[in-house]
Amino acid sequence: MKRFKILCMAFVLLLATSLFASEAPIRISAGKTYNQFSEKYYPQVVVTSISDSVTIKNVIVNKGNCKYDKTDYFSTSYGVKTKKMFPKKLVYGKELKITVLRCNILRVDVETNQGDWSVEFK
User: Fold this and answer.
1) Angle 43-47-49 (CA atoms, 0-180°, nearest 5)?
2) Are 26 and 84 in contact (CB under 8 A)?
3) Which of 51, 55, 62, 89 could disulfide-pair with 113, CB 3.0 to 4.6 Å?
4) Cα 105 versus chain centre, distance
5) Which CATH architecture has domain 24-120?
6) 47 pLDDT above the threshold of 80
């Protein structure tokens, strides 16, 4: 009887955690991108919104041990302009791409307005 109670409590706990677990509003992937000027491939993190709207507050690569430029560069008719990368609002299907140098991407943590999400790569 005691085993039955323990099994029932474990089942209820498992059911409760699955009911209250929220689904990530983003998809995090890692790959490589080719730079035509250096003619080399570099590691790249891609954060894709799978929510109608999500704001990316920060992206941390390899627990902060992998640095990247947190500045957006874009061309205008007056030359190149810059702005801070974060916060960055993404709508469904839009991506944020981050290229890192001299790093093997093992872990990515993304802070959003809907919670923090992490992915580990092997």
Assistant:
1) 160
2) no
3) 55
4) 12
5) Sandwich (2.60)
6) yes
What would the two tokens of residue 35 be? Answer: 């730079």
Residue 107 has pLDDT above 90, yes or no: yes
User: How far apart, in Å, are the Cα atoms of 37 and each of 20, 34, 41, 63, 102?
Assistant: 48, 9, 11, 29, 17
Q: How confident is the model at residue 75 (pLDDT cuts 50, 70, 90)?
A: confident
What is residue 32's predicted lDDT score, i.e. its pLDDT? 96
More confident residue, 63 or 6: 63
Rg (CA), the chain: 20
Distance between CA 97 and CA 84 in Å, rounded?
Answer: 14
